[in-house]
Each structure stands twice: as C-alpha cells, then as structure tokens.
C-alpha cells in the first residue's frame, strides 16, 4: 500500500478554477496539492479564444450568467472582479486588447496566461501532480482521502474543480458530478451550451449550401436576445450569435433571427422598385443580405412576383417581416463534442455563495464549470473560474 501524504488542501483539476484556488490558498500558507489526469495544466485555456484566450470581459456582471439560482454568483464575482484579474495580467506584463464588446484577449498567446498561473502556483508553494488518475475519494476522520495512481493524500479540505463535460477529447469527464452525488449533492440537468446548431434534416441540403455566409444578426430564443455575428456552415448555424442563443435553446424551440437589424429594408426595396423595376426583390435584397442568402430566401418564397415593379407595399411589408422574424427550428446542436461549456451542474442551493463550500459536507468545495453557473460567450466563463476559484482559495 502506498504511503499517505497529509496536506491542508487537495484540488481536483488543474484548469482555470483549480489553479486560481491553489494560488489563493497557497498564498495564505496552506499546503496545497493539485491533481489532474492531463499531462499539462490549463489545456482549455491553451485552446481558448483561438489560442489567444478571451480571459475576461470588461462588462462582466451577474447578468451574464445562467443558473437555476441566479443570485448565487453575485458575491464571488464582487469579491474577485474582472479588474482584479486584469491587474494580475498587467503586473505580469502580458499584453492584451479588447476585441469587441468588452472581450479581452492576449495579444500573444493563451500560454502566457497558463505560465502566469503556474508560476503564481509555484511561488505560493502549491504542488502540481499531473498525469495522475483519481481512483477513489472518501470522507475520513477530519477530512478527505484522495487515492490516485501516484499515491494517496489526506486533506482537511477538498476542492472539486474538474470542469464540465464539453470536449471529452481534451480530458473532460463527469467526475465532478459523480463526486457531488457521492457526497449527497444534487446535480441539475446538464446539457451542451455555447454550441453550434445543426440543420433539421429537411433544411440540410438547401441551407447547408450557404456555408461560409456570415452576417450580423439580432437573434433570440426563449426571451433572451443577442446582437452578434452569425455564420452558415454545412452542418448548421454557428458564430457568436448562435452560440449565445444555444444556451437558451431546448429541443423543438424556434430561434428567431432578424437578418438585417437596424436596416430600413422597406425603403431599400421601395427605392429599388423605382431604380431597378425589372429586378426581383431578392436581387435587390442581395445588396444587404448577401447574394447567396437572398437567393435562398427567394427560393423558399416561391410566390413572390418576379418583377419588383409588380410588388405591392403590403407584399413588401410581408417580405420585410419575414426577414426580421426569420424563424428556424434547429435539428439539434453539435453537442459536447464542440460545446464551449456545460450548462447545469452541481446545484448551488447546497453551496455557500461566499466560499463555495458544501452546506452538507464541511470542507468540501465545488468551483468553476462543474457548478450550475454558466457564463455567456465573451470571457465570462473564465471570469467565473477566477472568481469562484478565488472565493474557495480564500476559505479553505
Ligand atoms: P476546466 O475544464 O478548465 O478544468 C478542469 C480540469 O479537470 C482539466 O484540467 C481536466 O483535465 C481535469 N479533469 C477532468 N476530469 C478529471 C478526472 N477524472 N481526473 C483528473 N482530472 C480531471 N471561456 C472563456 O471565458 N473565454 C474563452 O475564450 C473560452 N474559450 C473556450 C474555447 C473552447 C474550445 C472551450 C471548450 C471552452 C472555452 N471557454 C472559454 C470555456 C472555458 O474554457 C471553461 O469555462 C473553463 O475552462 C472552466 O474552467 P474549470 O477550471 O472549471 O474547468
């Protein structure tokens, strides 16, 4: 039997949340071991933001999060804000820029964020155990015992930071949910979020041919709307607007898309009626919607008169309404294979909002994506990892 090593804190998962927690706890003098089955820490940080890591958002507020318990995130987000993380990035001399809508990205590489975190962990004395399989976690007298392929640790505190189910190819597992249930916690329904939609089978052939067409849209689903870009793909609809609404979508729901937000389409068409009376309305709309999309819409609306000159004002209003309220029922989503996040997770009603500690098992904490707190696209998910990680690290 391998020897048992005692430590104050065991953190399961060396992702964004786990590393932040280890830094904060180590800086407070706690002995910390971070265990991960991956060969390198922060793999999702490395691939995030196209390799540049959208590490936070200037405008992050609790409103940017989805949870069954919407007030839960307020305290942690207030105690460790986006500006606290930005200060750390600045102190390390990591160059960054705002891309759009408050989203902050590294100028160079996401690896700079990982290097900052691993270096801070080293300075705080936290030990990192990589390529280590977690085989069993139990509650023992005075704390927890974590058995792994590299030995057994006993700790007063146990922090579960094993993330969600998205991108299983990168090492995502359901361990955090299993541990939550093992310790008597509820886990809310989990599903893929921030994920591209796939076409319903009857749309695949015709609409899939628009692959590559991109445009700014106003997209909404179940009462929440986003103004961002949308991209047609062979498989379905993607781009930030679609990823955002996917988090609000359930099977069978309609996604409503204004394909020309802010544009006076009726005036554009009416002007075309004078200047290009022989053209079809879809040709004229090609100026604003892209030629390929306008043609596709035209082929769906086969009752439109061929000449713009023959189009009545009420017919124009009808066409404009169709473009403003373009409704589509996706066949599904690409699922965890490509989803950026997992919606749902460890029920926050059983956790302390200031410390992330279990209300059922003293010393047990859950942080980051494994919890039922999911951010919008744009750096909010990393901010939740930093904020919840810091909250736990300051309490363990
Ligand atoms: P995270 O998943 O980062 O870490 C969990 C760790 O636990 C991993 O290291 C994993 O190996 C380990 N683990 C899991 N199961 C284990 C087991 N059984 N045994 C041992 N270890 C185990 N967000 C954002 O704000 N800005 C962005 O730009 C992006 N971009 C982005 C791109 C892509 C492609 C994805 C998939 C995701 C994003 N995200 C994002 C989301 C963001 O990556 C995510 O929300 C955070 O990484 C969550 O941090 P956690 O630390 O909670 O989990």
UniProtKB/TrEMBL annotation:
Identify the residues that the record assigns to the RsdA/BaiN/AoA(So)-like Rossmann fold-like domain, covering every copy: 8-394
Its name, as the record gives it, is Aminoacetone oxidase family FAD-binding enzyme
Q: Does the keyword Flavoprotein feature in the UniProt annotation?
A: yes
Listed A to Z, the keywords are:
FAD, Flavoprotein
The Swiss-Prot or TrEMBL record lists the needed cofactor(s) as: FAD
Q: Which PANTHER family match?
A: OS12G0638800 PROTEIN
Domain annotation RsdA/BaiN/AoA(So)-like insert: ranges: 191-341
Q: Which InterPro entries match?
A: BaiN-like, BaiN-like_dom_sf, FAD/NAD-bd_sf, RsdA/BaiN/AoA(So)-like_dom, RsdA/BaiN/AoA(So)_Rossmann
| Alphabetical list of Gene3D superfamilies matching this protein | FAD/NAD(P)-binding domain, HI0933 insert domain-like, Translation factors
């Amino acid at each position: 039997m391998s020897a048992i090593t005692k430590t104050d804190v065991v953190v399961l998962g060396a992702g964004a949340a786990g590393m932040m927690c280890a830094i904060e706890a180590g800086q407070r003098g706690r002995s910390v071991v971070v265990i991960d089955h991956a060969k390198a820490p922060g793999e999702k940080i490395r691939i995030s933001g196209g390799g540049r890591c959208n590490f936070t958002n200037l405008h992050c507020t609790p409103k940017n999060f989805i949870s069954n318990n919407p007030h839960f995130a307020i305290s942690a987000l207030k105690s460790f804000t986006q500006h606290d993380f930005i200060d750390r990035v600045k102190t390390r001399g990591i160059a960054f820029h705002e891309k759009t809508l408050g989203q902050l990205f590294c100028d160079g590489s996401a690896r700079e964020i990982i290097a900052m975190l691993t270096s801070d962990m080293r300075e705080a004395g936290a030990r990192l155990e990589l390529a280590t399989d977690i085989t069993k976690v139990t509650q023992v007298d005075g704390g927890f015992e974590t058995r792994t392929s590299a030995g057994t640790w006993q700790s007063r505190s146990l922090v579960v930071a094993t993330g969600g189910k998205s991108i299983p190819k990168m090492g995502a597992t359901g361990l955090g949910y299993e541990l939550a249930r093992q310790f008597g916690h509820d886990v809310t329904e989990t599903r893929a979020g921030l994920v591209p939609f796939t076409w319903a089978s009857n749309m695949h052939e015709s609409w899939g041919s628009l692959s590559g067409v991109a445009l700014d849209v106003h997209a909404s689903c179940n009462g929440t709307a986003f103004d961002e870009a949308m991209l047609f793909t062979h498989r379905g609809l993607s781009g930030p607007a679609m990823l955002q609404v996917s988090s609000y979508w359930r099977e069978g729901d309609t996604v409503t898309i204004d394909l020309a937000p802010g544009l006076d389409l009726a005036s554009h068409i009416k002007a075309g009626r004078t200047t290009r009376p022989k053209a079809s309305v879809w040709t004229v709309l090609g100026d604003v919607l892209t030629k390929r999309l306008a043609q596709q819409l035209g082929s769906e609306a086969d009752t439109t008169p061929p000449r713009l000159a023959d189009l009545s004002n009420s017919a124009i209003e009808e066409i404009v309404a169709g473009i403003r309220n373009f409704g589509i029922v996706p066949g599904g989503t690409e699922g965890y294979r490509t989803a950026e996040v997992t919606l749902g997770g460890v029920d926050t009603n059983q956790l302390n909002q200031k410390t992330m500690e279990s209300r059922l098992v003293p010393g047990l904490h859950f942080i980051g994506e494994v919890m039922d707190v999911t951010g919008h696209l744009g750096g909010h998910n990393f901010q939740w990892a930093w904020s919840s990680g810091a909250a736990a690290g300051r309490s363990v």
